[in-house]
Input
Amino acid sequence: MVDFFTNRILIIRNKIFFCALFSLFFFSFNNVLYAQGAVNEYDVKKMMILKVTTFIEWPKKSKVNDKQSNIVISIIGDNPFNGKLKKLVANQNQKINNKQVVVNYIKSIEDIEGSDILFICSSEKYIVSKIIKHARNKAILTIADTRGFTEKGVIIGLFIRNGKIALNINKKEADKCGFYISSSLLGNAVKVIQ
Output
């Protein structure tokens, strides 16, 4: 019985620590670098894509839970990162859930097969609903930075608010797809769609 309570206390302490750590990263990194013009918008967004995933649990059916597989980030449409996300992942040996990360650039809905994270570019605004429908049953975390995409079903929306990068989260869609989003990430969102 004591071990159970000790374990629960450690879990709660870790959640509080990660919440504080995320808030510190989110607000200080975002405010200092972006506001001072030290980096451009997509330099911050590429870091945000990698950081928000540490606060998300994939559905049990996802290949992310397979210890042998890599995490695949796919970017569909006209790539605003100009290869910087792929370079960051390669040069800094970035990992998500202690797994190697691979970045793919894709052009069609059929190519999202095998993706774990899908960044949907603004060029896909006319087919975003089709993309989301296709990704929904495949345990793919969808992220975008185009106004209105979160309302259409994208799970994580990144946008600029008062000169800073902010988040919208479509929890309803995340729940439908089987993703668990931590309360610390939800607490930092400007808007949460229930």
Summary: The chain has one domain: 2-193. The CA atoms of residues 77 and 121 lie 5 Å apart.
